[in-house]
Amino acid sequence: MSDLGAAMDYISRRRFITAIGQTAAWGVAANSVASLAVRQAFAAGNPVGTELHGLSSFGELKYAPDYQHFDYAAPDAPSGGTFAFQPSDWLYNQNHQTFDTLNTFVLRGSAPPRMELTFDTLMVHAWDEPDALYCALARNVTISPDRNRYRFELRPEARFHDGSPVTADDVAFSYLLMKEKGHPNIANDLINLETAEAVSPEIVELVFNGKQSPRIILALGDIVPVFSRAYYEAHEFDEATLEAPLSSGPWKVGDFKVGSHIEYARVENYWARNLPFARGLDHFGRLRIDFFRERTAAMEAFKKGLVGWREEFTAKFWASEYDFPAARAGKVKQAYFASEKTPLLQGWAVNTRRAKFVDPRTRQALGTLFDFEWTNHNLFYDAYARTNSMFEGSDLAATGLPSQEELALLEPLRGKVPETVFGEAVMQNVTDGSGTDRSMFAKANKLFTEAGWRKKDGKLVDANDEQFKVEILIRAQAFERLLGPYTRNMGRMGIDATIRLVDASQFQSRLDDFDYDFVGLAFTFDPNPTAEALKQFFHSESANRHGSHNYPGIADPAVDTLIGQVKDAQTHEELVTILRALDRVLRAGHFWIPNWHAANHRVAYWDRFGWRDPKPDYKFPVERLWWYDEARAGRT
To answer: Do residues 135 and 122 lie in contact, with contact meaning Cβ atoms separated by under 8 Å?
Structure first.
């Protein structure tokens, strides 16, 4: 199916009470000198007690309060036409090839991609800044002196699709509903939300308990959808349903058929169409996503023009499958677009919850048996570079020896982390590319022996003479081509290695239940990730939490300590130091076997679209940026 991996997830509970008409005190002092310093540093760039139009980690905003639109938007572009596309973060990297619910904000069921576009949020990210948020449903935000309260004044013109107003009561209801019943990846970020209060019809306050990261609002401002309270008083929130919920966003659900397709219709009277955060976006009259269970059918639909845009993740297909009549005639184009400047985690998660994978030397040995050099040349047309870091492609990735600043964080952990943490950053094994590199097998054999495994009758066995077995979970048959050479290398070491193909729903279920040995996954982090986001992937709190992203089951006190220090970073430079130290510890633990990465998006499209250059650095939502070009369409 894809060179990239098996999943790029969207996007890291208690009773909910909405307090209406209450005016509360603005809090007390921070809990510690360190956290107070960070809060003060954050407030220096994001002043407390004043109405703000935007927020960022360290107070650096590109757009002034009177900005008219984002630079990457195109206010003069035409509207209309259909954009039938194969979303790159779904077709190749998500865990479903159909859907059985339109409720995308709970764990139950599989929702179609882009349902989040039908909802508004208090704030939105600027896609050309690392982590800046600008007011959307909210017209401004005010931060309390202790940074435990965020007061949002809503835009009075905001409306749901049925014409009813979006009120502070709806916002408060939504945050507390997501905290109690929402998908764990969002609910976890709300763990320190104490309550949400509707102070008036147009003012809502989010109240935190003081334990949150100073930058928590950057993780919450644009991922919590605002629901209609009236709608959910008549409907169950946490059920799988094919009834599209009432929403207020720029798109609404149109025609759909389970197992076939879904369409989103542009909301022509969208309440925010001419406001700065929305101006110049969402040009198409209709978005259409067709569901294909196999690559061949998807490619044939593209060749016929039934699908107009696709990102190609398989190097072999990029090199060999785009020689068809429409491409030769220039009607179909191939192009490269620069990858985003965001940290990438892509690899095989090794499930340490299972006893056979507890020893890190076992995990390192398994990683050693993956011959990237042979794979890249023979299967990928030399299109990729090897990934080594948990934060690949960013300044958060550790390189060389630890700096003095990193050592100041790591020395207190000496004896609690592998000694390799204090040397050169751990890199993956490099082979001669022959596919039979003896040194690769020798290194792996040494590590297996040190971990207590031994050879018996050609099998790698443990102390009880049980053969070492590894099952790699996949959701598409095409992955077998990639994994076949890897499992054969394991077999040469005496491992009983198999590939288990399951359907999309079973794949997701087994992910949520951590029911696998190996599984391939891919994710991106924000350029300045919060402690809450990192906990989703690496902290002991998420190791056994159903539905979390901690797929290897990492439960390491040293890792927890470093993640705990993230919220104390007062500058981007301090955050970089902490995360480089964290990267070193995670890499030395061999919880993930890193894969590979590319510098560009490989995009094929029918020549009937327009767009504005350059693309934003931090996100590439083509369906919201491009538009239908009638002149070009007439030529194709």
So the answer is: yes
Radius of gyration of the chain (CA): 25
Q: Assess whether pLDDT exceeds 50 at residue 7.
A: no
Cα–Cα dist 357/225, whole Å = 39
Query: Quick count: other Cβ atoms within 10 Å of Cβ 338?
Result: 12
Cβ contact 535:188 at 8 Å:
yes
Do the Cβ atoms of 530 and 222 come closer than 8 Å?
Answer: no
Q: Which residues pair with 20 in a beta bridge?
A: 198
Round to whole Å and give the CA distance between 553 and 574: 27
Distances in whole angstroms, Cα of residue 574 to Cα of each of 16, 394, 539, 570: 36, 15, 20, 6
Omega before residue 214 within 30° of 0, cis: no
d(CA 297, CA 498): 27
| Contact predicate 471/520, CB 8 Å | no
> What whole-number distance in Å separates Cα of residue 447 and Cα of residue 460?
12
Q: Tell me the HSE value of 509 on the side-chain side, using a 13 A CA sphere.
A: 6
Contact 594, 347 (CB under 8 A): yes
- Tens of pLDDT, residue by residue over 471-524, are 999 988 878 988 999 999 999 999 999 999 998 889 989 999 999 999 999 998
| pLDDT (average), residues 246-269 | 97
Whole-model pTM: value is: 0.80
List, in order, residues 6 or more apart from 10 with CB less than 8 Å away: 89, 94, 104, 113, 116, 185
Give 621's contacts (C-beta < 8 A, 6+ positions apart): 127
Q: Is the pLDDT of residue 389 over 80?
A: yes
- Show Cβ contacts of residue 506 under 8 Å, excluding neighbours closer than 6 positions: none
| DSSP for 253-309, written as a single string | EEEEETTTEEEEEE-TT-TTTTSTTTTT----SEEEEE--SSHHHHHHHHHTTSS-E
What the block records as the tokens of 608 is: 């009937």
Report yes or no: 96 and 609 within 8 Å, Cβ to Cβ. Answer: no
- Average pLDDT of the chain, as a whole number: 90
Backbone angles phi, psi at 336, to 5 degrees: -110, 135
430: left (phi over 0), alpha (psi -120 to 50) or beta: beta
Under the banding of pLDDT at 50, 70 and 90, the label for residue 16 is very low
Encode burial over 232-260: b for 16+ CB neighbours within 10 A, e otherwise. beeeebeebbeebbbbbbbbbbeebeeee
22 pLDDT band, cuts 50/70/90, is very low
The residue assigned the tokens 């939502």 is 621
* Span 350-362, pLDDT tens digits: 999 999 999 999 9
pLDDT at 13: 23
**Domains of the chain, CATH where assigned:** 18-78+109-232 (3.40.190.10), 344-597 (3.10.105.10)
Q: Kindly give the pairing relationship between strand 286-290 and strand 261-266.
A: antiparallel
